[in-house]
Design goal:
The chain is of the alpha+beta class. The chain has helices at 2-22, 38-48, 76-85, 97-101, 145-159, 163-178, 187-209, 213-233, 248-251; strands at 26-32, 54-59, 64-70, 241-245, 254-258, 277-281. The strands form two sheets. It has a three-stranded antiparallel sheet with strand order 1-3-2. The protein has a three-stranded antiparallel sheet with strand order 5-4-6. α2 (38-48) crosses α3 and α5 packs antiparallel against α8. The longest helix is centred in the C-terminal third of the chain and has 23 residues, at 187-209. The N and C termini lie far apart (62 Å).
Amino acid sequence: MKKIAMSLGLIFGLGVYTLSAQVKNAVTTTVDVNGNCGMCKKTIETSGSDGKIAAVKWDVDSKKATITYDSTKTNEQAILKKIAQAGYDNASFRAPDDVYANLHSCCKYDRAMATKAPEHGMEHGEHQNHEKSQESTKTTAGKLDPVFHSYLAVKDALVGTDADKAAEAAKKLSESVAQVDMATLAEKEHHTWMEVNKSIAASAAKIAQENSIETQRQAFMDLSNNLYRLAKDAESDMALYWQFCPMANSNKGAYWVSQQQAIKNPYFGSKMMTCGETKEKI
């Protein structure tokens, strides 16, 4: 029996090592996650794993999950939130009661751990009894607003044809991107953020390093396209508009995001301030 246990431990260890090898910038942690059986194991590992970004291995006996993730693209809290969303209480999040209730009968684990963890979707540290305090009414909405505000500052500087202000605003945009806590994002915006954040950071860095307004405007096109994707999926109360100038980019046309419906063209500034149209209210 001891040999069998040792063999299983070796197999489990090799599995974790293999997963770690597939994930770049790998960080590995071990966290308590509730569950009962093989069915739980499959759901926990599937819900928390994400290609080469994150890999989860759950042990049915110890009730512990070994999580390996790319620290540049996600973090432990974001992964544990997904696991809770699938119905499994863990050290950081409580699964929604309705999701837990729909688990198969063999998966109905003892929810003792749930008394220590906030419910999925609530701010970390809130009480499970949903007290009507200021803390318990917080939501994930608006977590990306600093990124949008910084982008709009870059846009306004280009409208004013001010390369120095554009560079300074782009530096602040880079800071806003770096300060985003992915664990606080809702699921949809979290996925989109992981897809676009590097491109946004690269465009911001390009604008910040340039002193040529035309080169900055060229980089602004890619920046705007990625901001648009993010704005479509972000949980925010900001009113934003997707606008288009047909004469920009050597008459190929180019888009930008604005907080105002009135056209103020960042690609030409005062030369053709009102050239363009609003294509969509985001």
